[in-house]
Structure formats: C-alpha cells, structure tokens
Amino acid sequence: MPGLKAWLSGTEPKQYLSDADLNEIGVKYWVIDADNWKAEGKIDKICEERNYWNYGHKRTTREMVLEYNKEHLHEQDEVLFFLDGAGYIEMRDKQERWIHVPVVKGILYVFPAGVYHRLRLETDVCNRLSIRANKKLDPTESGLKYHYRPADEMDCRKQYLERLSAGNFP
Ligand SMILES: [Fe+2]
Known about the structure:
With 170 residues, the chain is an alpha+beta fold. The protein has helices at residues 19-24, 37-40, 42-50, 155-166, and strands at 7-8, 28-31, 53-61, 72-73, 78-82, 87-92, 98-103, 107-111, 117-121, 125-132, 147-148. The chain binds fe (ii) ion (FE2).
C-alpha cells in the first residue's frame, strides 16, 4: 500500500521518516481512493471517529494560501485532503528541524493542533475537501484561524508540547 513519504528538509539523499516517526510528532494519515472517496466511505468513518466535519468540495488557488507559508499554528487539527494539485507542508519536529511532507492526491492528512507548520501550493489551483476539526465552526466561515509564530503562550501550543514529550496523540 502506498504510504506517506516525508523527509527531513535539506537532506540529500533524503532522510525519510517512518510512520512511527510521524506518529511521534502527531502526524496521522490515511490512504484514500480519491476518485471514489464518497462511495469508499473511509473519510466519513474517520470524520465520525475523530469528530471532524466534512463540508465538501473547495477550490483553492495558490494566491489564497500565500500567507500560509509563514510559520503558524492552529487551535484545531489541520485536516487536508487533495483531489488534485500539488504542494507541501513543512512542520517542525522535536528538534525544531523542518519536516517536508508532500501533499498529494489520495492521502488524508492530520496535522495536530499546536504544531508550527507552513503550507505551500505548487500548482495554481487545487481542489480539495474542506474538513474541519470542529463541528461547531460556522460552515460559512473561511476556515481555521492562523496564529503566526511566536504563539508559545497559547494553550494549544502548551498542550502540543505535553503530548510531544509523552508521545501520545489522540
Ligand atoms: Fe495551517
């Protein structure tokens, strides 16, 4: 089964992270049949189990996410599922190094609340599902709130660091 190939940024040859390494920093992922996701039912099941909410199709342009290339965090998990397009997320590991996570079609990603990260799209347009980690958010809202670094005093950041040292992510 194809997995998620993430690597330590700047390494050549690329130093890949195992699923266990990713788990340790709170990254979760599932392989999804992107052309058949509705019938497959896997996304619905994950959303139900993790209390996520799928608002359906969303078209995103590169311009819309330019600001997201600045290092930031969120109070909720960031859940990404791309139907096309390409890009990457970079997130910090335990030693504050950047981990490069390619964002590709067919993988549902969860980046935990409180982790510093940044996103860049490499295609002008991408289609994805808008999945939120909080059902209480108004579906008409534009999305997650962005807190740029430094945001070390936020509760979600402190909680993330506790989970990181305990190696225990829900
Ligand atoms: Fe983000």
